[in-house]
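Interim report, section 4.2 (structural modelling).
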Amino acid sequence: MSFLKRAPSFGENFREVKIPFEEGVMETLQAGDLINLTGTMYTGRDQTHRRLCALLAEGKTLPVDLDGQLLYYVGPTPAQPGQVIGAAGPTTSYRMDPYTPQLLALGLKATLGKGARTKPVKDAMQKHGAIYLATIGGAGAFLSKSITSAHLVAFEDAGPEALFRFEVNKFPAVVINDLAGKDYYQMVAEGRQVKI
Amino acid sequence: MREINCLKITEAVKELVITAARDLEPDILDALFAARDREKSPLAKDVVEILLANANIASRDQIPVCQDTGIAVVFVEIGQDVHVTGNLQGAIQEGVRAGYDEGYLRKSVCDPLTRKNTGTNTPAVVHVEISTGDHLRLAFLPKGCGSENMSGLAMLPPSAGTEGIVRYVVDQVLAAGSNPCPPVIVGVGIGGTFEQAPLLAKKSLLRPVGDHSARKDVAELEQRILAEINQAGQGVHGLGGSNTALAVHIELFPSHIASLPVAVNIQCHAHRHKETTL
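Predicted structure of the assembly:
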C-alpha cells in the first residue's frame, strides 16, 4: 500500500457471513449491512444466463444445482501462471434481470453484482426469499485476493463468460435488497441511508 | 517525408494495451486521492481507499485494474509528412490482439447478433486524424461497457439552451446510478452533427482528469454540471456521499442553426488511458 496514507479499514469491521447461508442468517441481513462472505459461490454473466435459461426452456438439467446458492456476476481476466484467477470484480447486474426470476424460482438465494435491479427481479426476490448484494466495481485486482480457488464448471467455450465455482475468503459486499424488501440504493436516493 | 514502419506501430500499441490495463495514470490517481480527502462519508472514503489499494495491487502484481479490460479504442493522429510502410490498420489491430493475449487481458468483443466472442478482443475501434508535421500519435482508451452503456445522445432544440444542456447531462449521469462505477468522469460533446457529438464526448476523456476547457464560459459550465451531479448525493458506487463524479469535460464544435446535439460519454473511475508519440 505504498501510496496510501493509511491502510483501508474497509472489510475489517464487516460482519462475517458463511455461504451458502446457514439457517436463519439471511433473515438478519439488512439493506446497508456490510458483510464479508466466506465459502462457495458460483459465477455467471450474460451468456451463462442465456444458456441456463435455454436449458430450462428445453426441460434439461442445469450443470449446477443453484438451490440455496449465491451467484456472482463476474467475467474474470485469465489467470497468469501461478495465479488462482485474474482480476475478478462485479459486472453490472441489470443485464441479468430478464433471466434472474427463473433462477430464483429454482431456489437461488442470493445474487452479487453492482447496480440496481429492476422491479420484476425485486418482486421475484420477495416471492422466493432471496437477497441481492453489491461489491466494489472496478476493484477487480483487490477482490481477486479474496478468491482462494476457481474451478471451471460449465460453458468453457464461452471464454470469460464461463460458469465457475469460486471458494472465497472474506469477500466484501454490501446488502442492497434484503428479505424485508428494503433497497439500499433507494434509501440513499431518499436520504435514508443509515451507515454514513 | 518520415518513414514509420508498421511493425513499430504494432509494438507501440501492444505496449499501450498492456500497461493501460495495469497501471493507472497519475491524473486519475490524483483525482481519486482528492476525492478521498474531501469525502465526508466514512463508507465512501473507505471505498475510495479500496480503489487506490486496487490500483496499487494491479501495478505491483501486474494484473488488470478491472476485469473489464474493455473494447479497444485507438485514436491515431498522423502528421501529413509521415509515410507508414505496411498496413496501418492491420498494424494497430495486431497490436491490440497481441496486447490482450500477452497481457492476460479479458477478450470482451463479440458478434453483436450471435454474441460469439471473436476470441482476440479485435477488432479495435480506430479513429484516424490527419494533422501537420511528421509525428504519429497513438492514444489508447480501453472502454469498459458498464459505463459505456450508460452514455447517451440528445438532439436538443436550440431553444433548450444552456439550461437544457445541464438538465440532460445531469439527468443522464444520475439515471445511471451505480451502474457505471462512480465516481465517474463525464465526457460531454456539444454541437457538430449526430455522429460528431459522441466522438467529441469520447475525445474529451483523453484530457487529463479535471483539466478545464480553455474557454471560460465552457469551464464554468463544466464546474456547474459537476456541482449539480455531486449535490444529488448518490456518491461512490451509489452508497451515498459527495463524489458521484470526479470531473466533467466538455468539448465543443459549431452546430447547424437548427440543431443542438449533446452527447454524454460516461467513464468509470478505472479510467485507463495511455498515449505515445512515434
